[in-house]
Amino acid sequence: MMEREDESFDGVVTSLGGWPMIDASWHDSDFDLATLLGTLRTMYGFTPLVLMYVSVDERNSAAHLIQVGWR
How many domains are there within the chain? Predict the structure, then answer.
């Protein structure tokens, strides 16, 4: 994440939904963990908690599986 030199730390934090320790206007009602995790994965290639991916079911190639694991 920190390899993106075109963005400041504050800009990255803001784009991820803010941080209550440094943003007095942050409200938990505005926080969405699913959105945060998706943004981290999509924009920064970072998976902090769990690994998620879709694969083809080996027993039925017409079906797909959502697989979840941890680091």
Answer: 1
What tokens were used for 56?
């083809």
Residue entry with tokens 């800009």? 11
What mean pLDDT comes out for the span 32-51?
A: 81
CA distances from 29 to 17, 25, 26, 33, 37 (A): 11, 11, 9, 11, 17
Domain assignment of residue 36, yes or no: yes
Residue 45 corresponds to which tokens in the numbers above? 């290639």
pTM above 0.85, yes or no: no
Full residue range of the structural domain in which residue 52 is found: 9-70
